[in-house]
Design brief:
The protein is 36% helix and 11% strand. By secondary structure, it is of the alpha+beta class. Strand 14 and strand 15 form a beta hairpin. This is Penicillin-binding protein.
Length: 732
């Protein structure tokens, strides 16, 4: 019996027997003989080699994973993302030197032998027997391509990769059978093309095109002799022959390839010698992979695209299917991101909130009537370093966001819209005391709420009675507590649902009267899309981020579409426009008003000032801005934000100006249509509170029983006053 060499491993005799077995196997395959079980040949342990005829006849070649390019609405590149950096090219797009070099060093008889090179096997047997190890392989280029197909199919699964690369005769038999199939079906040139596109060249580069770009910053078709030889040499051991980390070893390997090219007469000996004398001249392009490389702060939008793809069944029945398709890549994704809007958002957020501030800011702008997300940015950059994050502060938790943030008084217009839909007049007055308990019980969708909770206004001077217009402008808490108690909680819940306003954590809205003060956490994207319904005549359109997708073959893929529905009547939407227009003209949001452009909006500040908001819109853009601590720990008292000290942060003094500057930049040079409004008289013009006895507790129709200026939002002014607690909003 042959003995093992000292230290383990097979003896020379065993090595020779093993390779002899392979040569016998190769001969049998070439003769077209169906092999018996491996045990009969004595080639390997039981079960390691399948019967040759039992192996499936067709090799299933998975699509090669490639780069996916994400583009903005104008066709500009946002980022490239990939699981493997690869760009598949035709053989005509690969330098002839590169084709010659890879064949010379990996399989010089490639064009002479069939799927299996018996001469090469015998040569390797002899060489390895002499060395006592595995000094030379015997796989043809076709067999190597088959092995790479197995590796590609394994993806990033380490167990599957190990199986695809294990050194067993079982795997060798599969390679042989599939190699025969491919030689018949594809031919030599197609096999060479596929091999050069699938092979790993180190430095995260898969395929020759990516390798040429990585090491030399040029396309594969422009590779010269020595560059081609260098890349061909890397294939055998990408880590050992890495020219970036070990140029001397890489040069020795390159020169070996050059000499081999001369030996097989692809080049002359003089050419090989001259090329070998030249130093390695790299022009390395570092990998630019993923959303971290996105331009203009669009990393979070880029990541949102990925989340949309992984979550939407338009791209596959199961999440695993969608994930596999995303990793396969090769797509060109045209998005809704407007570069002008994105730059304006990122500049405004950066101007007002620094990335190393104790709090952060996020802003999103959508297009009314289409749901298109035009811009999405935040103060803390996308990344892994200090003051960076991968949490998208603009979106819900299931789309890569956090737990959301209390929107404060920016939720009050939702309740106002629900009341108007129920027939409440915008002239409806409530006593609106400084402090009050929530009326109890209050009707919900499934019963009633009972409790003893209380709330109050910001200061003792804020005492009603107030009508809806003034209460909205001043963001009077107790007015809206009385309003929701009057109409019931269910209409407000249903209005929020129709406007797409949901909790960021995905849980149902809690049916409690305090919802009128915005105490349930929501995201900026949700609020922006909801407010867009006011600008769009009461029609809500769900947010969309993808315009179109083409695959690697240029075929159009199905993409999710915005779903639009009526959330309220146009009359209700126009009335809300009038109320919120007054907020930016003379109310708490005056600092957010746009010059020369009709706009409307609402400030909001949560309890204890963990969050401050401004949500507003024009007819062609709706945006939401949030400022706060993502961890809900830092109260915004005695705090410096963007270099400006605040004893208290209001929705008007930080989010408001961010919204104003972002919208100004986003809409610069674009049409400035007017908002559709309704006339609401101001009964308090001239400083008189009340309605002269005309409101006896009933509900008035717009324009009835009131004097004063009849222009929407006109003829009234609110002096400066501080924020309203418990969801209140913005003073100056």
């Amino acid at each position: 019996m042959a003995k093992k060499r000292e230290g383990g491993g097979l003896s020379r005799t065993q090595m020779a027997a093993k390779f002899l077995g392979v040569s016998v196997l190769a001969g049998a395959v070439l003769a077209g003989i169906a092999l018996p079980a491996a045990g009969a040949l004595g080639l390997a342990a039981k079960g390691s080699v399948e019967g040759f005829d039992d192996i499936p006849a067709n090799l299933k070649t998975p699509p090669l994973s490639q780069r996916t390019t994400i583009l903005d609405a104008d066709g500009g590149e946002i980022a490239k993302v990939y699981s493997r950096d690869r760009t598949v090219v035709n053989l005509k797009q690969i330098s002839p030197y590169m084709q010659q070099a890879i064949v010379a060093i990996e399989d010089a008889r490639f064009y002479q032998h069939g799927a299996v090179d018996l001469k090469g096997i015998l040569r390797a047997l002899n060489k390895n027997a002499q060395s006592g190890g595995v000094a030379q392989g015997a796989s043809t280029l076709t067999q190597q391509y088959v092995k790479n197909v197995f590796i590609e199919e394994a993806g990033d699964d380490p167990d599957k990769v190990a199986q695809a690369t294990q050194q067993t005769l079982g795997r060798k038999v599969k390679e042989l059978k599939y190699a025969i199939q491919l030689e018949k079906e594809l031919g030599k040139r197609k096999i060479l093309q596929n091999y050069l596109n699938i092979t790993f060249f180190g430095q995260q580069a898969y395929g020759i095109e990516a390798a040429a770009q990585r090491y030399f910053s040029k396309p594969a078709k422009d590779l010269n002799l020595e560059e081609s030889a260098l890349l061909a040499g890397i294939v055998q051991s990408p880590s050992r022959y890495d020219p970036v980390n070990d140029p001397q070893e890489a040069k020795r390997r390159r020169n070996t390839v050059l000499q081999r090219m001369a030996d097989v007469k692809d080049i002359t000996q003089a050419q090989a010698h001259a090329a070998a004398q030249r130093p390695i001249q790299l022009k390395v392009s570092r990998p630019q992979n993923g959303c971290i490389t996105a331009v203009d702060g669009a990393g979070f939008f880029c990541d949102y695209i990925r989340k949309v793809f992984l979550n939407d069944k338009a791209f596959g029945k199961t999440r695993n299917d969608r994930s596999k398709r995303w990793n396969e890549g090769g797509m060109t994704i045209h998005t809704t991101l407007d570069p002008q809007t994105q730059k304006a958002i990122q500049k405004s957020v950066g101007d007002h909130v620094h990335e190393d501030d104790q709090v952060a800011s996020a802003a999103t702008i959508v297009q009314p009537g289409t749901g298109k997300i035009l811009g999405m940015g935040q103060s803390r950059p996308y990344g892994f370093g200090p003051h960076q994050t991968q949490i998208n502060l603009s979106v819900d938790h299931d789309m890569g966001g956090g737990a959301g943030y209390q929107p404060g008084s920016t939720f009050k217009p939702v309740v106002a819209a629900a009341a108007l839909e129920q027939g409440t007049s915008p002239y409806q007055k409530y006593s609106s005391p400084y402090r009050m308990q929530y009326p109890s019980p209050v009707q919900t969708c499934n019963g009633e709420w009972q409790g003893t909770d209380a709330t109050q206004n910001e200061n003792r001077s804020e005492v009603g009675p107030y009508g809806m217009k003034e209460a909205t402008a001043k963001s009077v808490n107790t007015y809206f507590v009385q309003l929701i108690s009057d109409i019931g909680i269910c209409p407000a819940v249903k209005m929020a649902q129709k406007m797409g306003i949901e909790r960021a954590d995905g849980k149902p809205l809690q049916q409690v009267p305090s919802m009128t003060l915005g105490v349930q956490e929501m995201s900026p994207l949700t609020m922006a899309a909801g407010y867009a319904a006011f600008a769009n005549g009461g029609e809500y359109c769900s947010p969309v981020a993808i315009e179109s997708i083409t695959d690697a073959r240029g075929r159009q893929m199905q993409v999710p579409q915005s779903s639009c529905r009526s959330a309220m009547s146009k009359r209700t939407a126009d009335t809300i426009n009038t109320l919120l227009r007054g907020v930016v003209q003379d109310g708490t949001g005056k600092k957010a008003g746009l010059k020369g452009r009709d706009s409307a909006g609402k400030t909001g500040t949560s309890d204890s000032r963990y969050a401050a908001w401004f949500v507003g819109y024009t007819p062609n853009a709706a945006g939401a801005v949030w400022v706060g601590d993502p961890l809900h720990q830092r109260k915004m008292y005695n705090i410096t934000i963007g270099g400006v000290y605040h004893d208290k942060v209001y929705g008007a003094d930080t989010p408001g100006p961010i919204w104003r500057d972002a919208m100004t930049g986003a809409l610069a040079g674009r049409p400035a249509p007017g908002l559709s409004t309704v006339p609401i008289d101001d009964p308090n013009k001239g400083g008189n509170k009340g309605d002269g006895g005309q409101n006896k507790g009933g509900k008035h129709r717009p324009g009835q029983g009131h004097g004063g200026d009849n222009k929407p939002g006109g003829g009234w002014h609110i002096p400066g006053f501080p924020d309203v607690l418990g969801g209140g909003n913005g003073g100056w």
